[in-house]
Amino acid sequence: MTQITPLNNEQHANLKIMNSTDFRRYKEQHLIPLIAHDFIPMASEFSVVFVKNEETGQFTAVAMMGIKPGLNLYCQDDKWEPSVMPSSFLKSPLSLHIQDENSDDCFVGIDLDSPLVTTENGQALFNSEGEQTDYLKARTEHLLDVTQKYEQTQKITQHLASKRLLTHKKLNINLGKDEKYAIDGLYIIDEKALNALSQDDFNDLRDKGLLPLIYAHLSSMHQIGRLAKKQIQFDTK
């Protein structure tokens, strides 16, 4: 459990954040939420798929960084040097939260249990006068940008769903030695449904700039084999 606390220039005047490429904080998260801007770069190494919240019906775009729940194959140690990564990886230990249900006001929260939070080394959050440092301002801008793009991505996924382009997919992964692992609960773009769209609906996707995202997603499914190999390597250590 993380301890998220609203950032305060009095209580947290001496706090600093260390820059780190150690992503073990995600080692138990095999599906990482994405924003639309992540699709094309992430598709070069990871499968980009969709999952559905059965209670709300909302779809979320995610990168598969593991085959089995609770195991991120890339973040088990601090040696991973990513060429691409989800935008959300750069948020921790800060996060953005809605003040309350009846307001659009937000506050920046900080995970005080994060090993990235110190009082010694790192980037200061506040100066001696209690004002935000340029570092904190930049981090806050990033949080706002990712949050806005996440909301845009949610609208995109719902639009795809409204056009009946998302279809349930069950994957059977070959892990060698006659071992297969079934992954259920994933959704992908139905190519037949995409090709069967009316000209107007297809042009609508094009005009909204969604076709590159769709094609990136479809091509990313070839990365499943890469993930299977990493699982086999992990299992045979």
Q: Strand arrangement, largest sheet?
A: 3-5-4-11-10
Number of strands: 11
- Secondary structure class reads alpha+beta
- How many strands, which pairing sense, and closed or not: the largest β-sheet? 5 strands, antiparallel
Helix content: 25-40%
Number of individual domains: 1
What is the radius of gyration?
20 Å
Count of DSSP-assigned helices:
6
Strand percentage: 15-25%
Whole-number mean pLDDT: 92
Query: Which series of helices and strands comes N to C?
Result: EEEHEEEEEEHEEHHHH
Ranges with pLDDT <50 over ≥5 residues? none
Secondary structure layout plus pairing:
Layout: E1 4-6, E2 16-17, E3 31-33, H1 39-42, E4 47-52, E5 59-64, E6 94-98, E7 106-111, E8 117-118, E9 123-124, H2 134-162, E10 166-174, E11 180-189, H3 191-195, H4 199-207, H5 211-220, H6 224-235
What does this 3D model show about the protein?
This is SapC-related protein. The structure is a single chain. This protein has 237 residues and is an alpha+beta fold. The protein has one domain (4-235). The chain contains six helices and eleven strands. The strands form three sheets. A five-stranded antiparallel β-sheet has the order 3-5-4-11-10, sandwiched between helices. A three-stranded antiparallel β-sheet has the order 1-7-6, covered by helices on one side. The longest helix is centred in the middle third of the chain and has 29 residues, at 134-162. It starts with a strand and ends with a helix.
